[in-house]
C-alpha cells in the first residue's frame, strides 16, 4: 500500500518544530527515524495529516552527563547510544538492550524518542526506561513537562503524549550507575521483536547485601511489567541460587501474559523464568 | 557423417552466470521499472470478511475523485469473462465452484477482490478504494479443516451438502491384505500449516488493451508466459495471436508466479475501460492474502511392515485444505501428495485417498515442492516411527526398502521412476557422516548435557514435467512439452530463443552452456533471448516443476545438434572437404590435421545469409536456424538424502540447526554452482517452512499474519553451513541425461529436522506431527512428554 496524503514540514529548531506541530493540530505527527512510523503509514495504519520532520534538529542529538542524571536526546540514533562509551560506563543496560534492537541498518536510523513514543509493547527501549525509572521530557508551545516512565506508557502503542507535544529527551537517574545490569530476550528468529524479555539490575552494598533491585519482564503485556514483589524479595538479602529460585517462583503470579501465535501465557511464563534466571544471576554476580 | 566436436566441455563446468553482473549491480528491469506512456496504476479493493454476501457496492464517490480513470466491479465483468481457469482436473466428478476475477454476489475469503480502481498513481487509486462503499451481510465461516469437516458445520457453498469438492483414490496392490497380515503397523496424523512462497519481487502486471487493433499486451512477472497467454485468451475470449505476454526480469518465482491470477484479468478490464495501460503491482501486505497459498493439509497415514523391517503396505488419507475457490492448479498439489506418497521406497501395496476440502481461505496454488514436502514428511515420519517400533536405526529401514538399482524403471501407484542409485546415495551419506565425525561430536555434546541429535531423510523428486500426453491423461488441460530455437546469425553469433523464464535460478546460463558445447562455440558467443511470447517459442509448462534446465537444456541440445549438422555441411562446401574430416572448436571449423584450412562461424554465417554464391551448398535452405520440440516419454526422478545435526533448547523449544549434509542426484549436472544454489536456496526455504513460516488465521477466518514480523522467513542467521555431494545418474527419457533440481531443498528440509529434533530429545516419547515446528509447539510436546514420563 501507499501512504495517505499528508503535509510535510522540516523545521530547523525545536521552537519551530513545536510551533509547526501546534499548527498541524490533532492530525500532526513527529517524524524521527521513521523505522516504525513510516511502515505504519505505508499500510495506512497511521494516517497523519502532517509530518513534522525532526531530522535537522541536531540539538536533540546528544548524550549528556548532568548533575543527577544522564540525558539522552530524542534524536539520538540507537547506534550512537549503543556504542556510547559514556552509557557503557554509567548505564550499560541501555547499550545492552539496544544491541538487541533489529539490525544495524535499523539502528542507524531508529531514535530514542521514536522508540519511546511508538511504545510497542515488545520494544526494548520502553522497557529499559521503565526499569531504570527514567523521566521523559515533553515539549510543546505551552512549555515543558517531565513524566516518569512508569506513567508515560499506557498500553501497546499508547502513551500520555498529548497532541502538540514532542519528546525531547529522556533522563536516567545517576544512581542507576551503581547497579549491575543484565538483559536477555527470546526471539524466534535472530533479532526480531522478543517473545519475552527480561531486564534485571541489582545494587549491592559493600557488605554484599542487596540494597535495591530492578526486575522487568518485557513483551508479555501491553506495557513492560516491573515485578515489584520480586524486587522486594531481593532487597535485604544476599545473592544465592535459592534467592534466584524464590524470585522465579514469584513470576507466574506477577505476570498475566498475552497469548499469540508465538506462544501462550504459560509458554511466556516459562520463557520469563528461563531468561530471568540468567539476567538475575548475572546482575547478582553469581558465576 | 558429421564433423567432430572438439569443443572443451562447458556442460558440467562452474561457469559464472551470464546475468550475475546485471543482477548484482542493479541493472535489471523488473515489472515495476516498466513505465509506459499514459500508464495508470491500479489497486484492488479486497473483502475484509471471510464469508459475506455482497448486498451493494457504491463506487460513485470513487469515480468522482480527481485522478481516477476507471472503476470496475463484478458487474462490469459479468458476461464478458469466463470463470477463472483451472488446469488440473484430477478428482473424478470434482465440483468446480465458479470463481470470477471480481466477486459477483458473495465474498468467500478475506482478500477476495471486490472492485478495482485505475488512477493517475497508486496513491490516488488507494484513496479511491477507501471511497467505495460495500454493504456486506456476514455468513458463517469455515475457517479451517476441522470447521470444514464438522457434520452440520458451516459451508462454503450454500448449494453443496458438504465442503468436499472431490475425492480421488490412488491404489496399488492389495493394501487391506498387507495391513491384515502385517507384523507391525505404525500410524499417525500430520498437520501442515498454510505457507507461501515470498519472492522479493511481488507479483505484478501491466495491461495495455489497444482499442483499435484489439490487441492485449501484458507485461507480467510470470514463470509460465504461454500458459498465461492461453488462459487469458480462454478467460476473456480473445485468440492467442492477439495476446502478447512480455516478461521483464523476474525477482523470484517459487511457483507463485506459475499460476494465473485474477489481477491479470482485472488490469485488462481497467485498461479497456480507461483506454490506457494499467499497472497493478501486488503490495507486500496485500501479498499475504492475494498470492497463492500452499502446503495446508492433513495426512492420516499408516505403514505396515514385517518384523524385520520390510514395508509391506502404506495407507493414507490426505485432506487438502483448499480455499474457497480453485486456483489455476486446482487440487493438483494435493493430489500429488497422494501420487508420490511412497517416495523412494519399493512398497508393493499402497493406497492413498485424497480429499479436496474447501474453506473460507484464499485459493491454494503452486509453491516449490508442489505436494512433495508433505508426501515426503509423511513417508519419512512413518519410517522413523517404524524404526522406533522395531528398535533399529531408521536407515536400516530405509536401506531395506529403497528402490534397488535393478528395479528401475519402477512403477509406483502413478509414476514410472526412471533411474537412480538410491542405496549408493545413502551409503555415501552415511560414509560422509562418519568421516565428519558427527556421531562423536553429538555424543560429546550430549555428555555436556546438550540436547543434540542427528536426523536423516531420503527423498525422491519428480522433475522434468515433459510428457504432454501422460499429463493430459492424468487430467492436465495444458501441455508440458518445451520448444527451443537455436539460431546462428549472419555474423556467426548464436542466439537461443526460449519460452523459459529466468527468475533468479540461472536457467539462461544453463541453456547457453548447452548450446555452446553442442555447437562447438565459446560460451561468450551465445545470447539467450527470453520474455516475449511474440518472439520466443512455446513452453508448455513454463519454468516450474523442476523442468527448466532439463527440458529446456535437452531441447536446446537437440536443436543445436541439428544446427551443427547444417553448419558442417556449409563448412564442408567452403573447405571442399568431407564433413567427417572436419572438426570444430571455439567456433573455428578446420580440416583435421590441417589447421590452416579452416573457416570461422562468421564465415559460415556470411555464407548462409549474405554472400551465398559459390560457398553455400546448392539445394540447402539459406539461413541457420533449427527448432526442437521436446515432448519426452517420461519424467525424470531426482533424489537425495540428507542428514542434519540440530540442538533443541528444552525450555524455549527452539531448534538450532548446527550442520547439514546432503547427497544429491539430479542426473547430469550442467552447472554445479547453479545446482548448489538451487539445493542450498531450497533448503533455506525449506528450513523456514519447517521451523517458522505460517499464515495464521483466527476462528473467523481473519489473517493474523500481515508482514514479515508475523510471517517469519529465515535470515542467514538461521541457515547452517551446508555440505553437498553430487551423484550423477542420467535421466532415461531426457536427452542429455539432465534431471531437475529446483525443489529438492523444500522437500528434504522438514522431515530431516523433525527426525533430528526427536533424536535430540530421544529420552522423551515425542512424535513430531505438525509443521512448522515452532519453538512454542516443541515446548508443548516436551512438557506433555515430561508429564507423561513423570506419571509413568
Describe this structure in words.
Chain A is built from 12 helices and 14 strands. With 287 residues, chain A is of the alpha+beta class. Chain A has a 5-stranded antiparallel β-sheet with strand order 4-5-10-6-7. Chain A has a 4-stranded antiparallel β-sheet with strand order 11-12-13-14. Chain A is globular, with a radius of gyration of 19 Å. Chain B has 792 residues and is α+β, with helices and mostly antiparallel strands. In chain B, a hairpin with a 5-residue loop joins strand 20 (482-488) and strand 21 (494-498). In chain B, helix 10 (332-339) packs parallel to helix 11, helix 11 runs parallel beside helix 20 and helix 19 (672-691) crosses helix 20. The mean pLDDT of chain B is 97. The chains are: A alpha+beta (287), B alpha+beta (792). At the A-B interface, helix 12 of A face helix 4 and helix 21 of B.
Task: Give the number of helices of chain A.
Answer: 12
Q: Which strand order does the major sheet of chain B show?
A: 4-6-2-13-10-11-12
Shape of chain B: globular
Mean pLDDT value of chain B: 97
Overall residue-averaged pLDDT value of chain A: 97
**Biggest pleated-sheet summary of chain A:** 5 strands, antiparallel
Q: In percent terms, what proportion of residues of chain A is strand?
A: 15-25%
Primary descriptors:
heterodimer; A: 287 residues; alpha+beta; 5-stranded antiparallel β-sheet; 4-stranded antiparallel β-sheet; 12 helices; 25% strand; B: 792 residues; 7-stranded mixed β-sheet; 6-stranded mixed β-sheet; 21 helices; 30 strands; 30% helix; 24% strand
In short:
The complex is a heterodimer of chains A (287) and B (792). By secondary structure, chain A is α+β, with helices and mostly antiparallel strands. In chain A, 34% of the residues lie in helices and 25% in strands.
